[in-house]
Specification:
Order of helices and strands: HHHHHHHHHHHH
Distance between the termini: 34 Å
Strand content: under 5%
Structural class: mainly alpha
Largest sheet: none
Number of helices: 12
Length: about 220
């Protein structure tokens, strides 16, 4: 293998996918697998990769190319988070879906259908869980910390944003639910008591995992 392609830190998705496609066509297995290994490094494929979504998927057209490549190359591991990315980015101010029109010709009408269905399914799931099951992720729920009341301690949970900015917070969660929940897990609420903090982080992690696990079904992808 030539020295210039042994290291791929500076290779873009388009270069790596092109190498993969060419090597797959001419059955050059070792270089094809090398390209695939680097594609797995740079593209989000797991729940742990949620934090790097924004840094990788910087435009709708890029996500569309990833979807088209993964579909044509039969690499389904790249599809769930790619569909999620284009379904949630970008949103216009009037909340109209705009990513599909900005993606160019890479996406088919069937892709558009998957995106619309998936986006609606994610919203329904998030709203259902947040309002009825998991109030401690920062959405409406119990406003009083019983531990603080009983023990005479202090807890800032009662002053969380939801009580002063409910519409803004709900919109933020719906705009990018996986990223929001990931931040809640990795950056616990400030000035909450230890009991409320643990509950909030645990519930956010559970909800993040549940949403991630259902991405394939949301976007009508077979596992």
């Amino acid at each position: 293998m030539p020295d210039q392609i042994r290291e791929a830190q500076n290779f873009t998705f388009d270069k790596l996918s092109g190498i993969y496609t060419l090597c797959d066509k001419y059955i050059i297995d070792d270089i094809r697998e090398w390209a695939l290994s680097w594609l797995k490094e740079i593209l989000p494929t797991s729940e742990d990769d949620i934090c790097k979504m924004g840094g990788v998927y910087t435009s709708a057209s890029l996500v569309a190319r990833v979807i088209a490549f993964a579909r044509d190359a039969d690499l389904p591991q790249f599809l769930p988070l790619a569909y999620y990315a284009i379904a949630t980015y970008p949103w216009s101010k009037d909340d109209e879906f705009s990513s599909f029109s900005e993606a160019g010709d890479s996406l088919s009408e069937h892709d558009g259908y998957r995106i619309e269905v998936g986006r609606n399914a994610i919203h329904a799931e998030v709203l259902g869980r947040a309002f009825s099951c998991l109030p401690d992720i920062g959405l409406p729920g119990r406003s009083t910390c019983m531990a603080a009341m009983v023990n005479g301690g202090t807890c800032a949970k009662v002053r969380q944003r939801v009580w002063s900015e409910p519409a803004e917070l709900v919109a933020e969660v719906l705009r990018s639910p996986l990223e929001y929940l990931d931040r809640r897990v990795k950056t616990p609420p400030r000035n909450w008591c230890s009991s409320c903090t643990l509950e909030a982080v645990t519930q956010a992690a559970l909800m993040r995992h549940a949403l991630y696990e259902r991405l394939s079904s949301f976007f009508l992808l077979s596992k």
